[in-house]
Amino acid sequence: MKAKTILCSIVTLGLLAAGLTACVTEKQEQAKLEAKAKIPRADAEKIALAKAPGGTIKEGGIEEEKGKLVWSFDIATPGAADITEVLVDAMTGDVVTVEKETPAQQEKEKQEDARRGPGGAQGSTGAPTAAEVTSWVADYKAGHPGRGGKDWDINRKSAAEIAADPNLKRLLDLCGPDQRPVIPALAWEYGGNDHQWINPTASALVCCVYIPVSPNSEHWKYDKATDHVTADIYVKFPEQNPCKNETGAAQVMSCLGDRSNIEILVDTANLDDGKAAGLSLAEASTDLYLVLPDGSRVLMYQGK
Fold it and tell me: Is CATH 3.20.20.20 the right assignment for the domain spanning 13-116?
């Protein structure tokens, strides 16, 4: 499964204690997510299998993918070497994606899982935990004290800097394709009075912001006629969000730490004024929409 490996495994007796701890943690996390789901696993399996007639489920579980709660299943089909991965929305029952995974891709995932191992740098599930990311952030911050703290800003790094720094890359990889992580403990606002994110401990650990693309995507759009950007964001670890019990956009807006911090999210949605996508967004207005854990989307910020 691409997002993460659902099943726990213990590869050596020497890692027994750590493996058991990882399994317990994974089971607890699965139980929490399953309690949120409106579509039970049995129903989700039927929906997924309809996308791979004659297939059998090799592996499956529930996870949060890009801020949406989904059931994820790997389905094997007789006579076919490819695996079909189906994601089913755990709140609505809609099919989110259907993708084929070749034997080469399956082998690559196995090798990556083996390198991580139980309790490895990416955790037993292949996806880092909030606690691991908190540690990564602290280490990165301590190792990049230059320019009065501006060297912390991971979204101001060049391609060469990213390629040369695996600790930087793993932070940027927290979010999916065409997204950038905004990590309040590392983020900076520029323009006149440069300053870091104000009161970062009051905010979510990581927000994932969709960045400029061309052509438009489902989560990021630019209307040239009105010079207006519409971008989605979501909270990476919603269970650790200090405002998780708020409703709608307040799940972020009530925990900004300071209202001016919204400009950092807006600037990220217009990363480098869209230059990498061949756009010119220096004067564009921007609306931000928050994708909630249940997959719904609400207006969070309306630009002028």
Answer: no
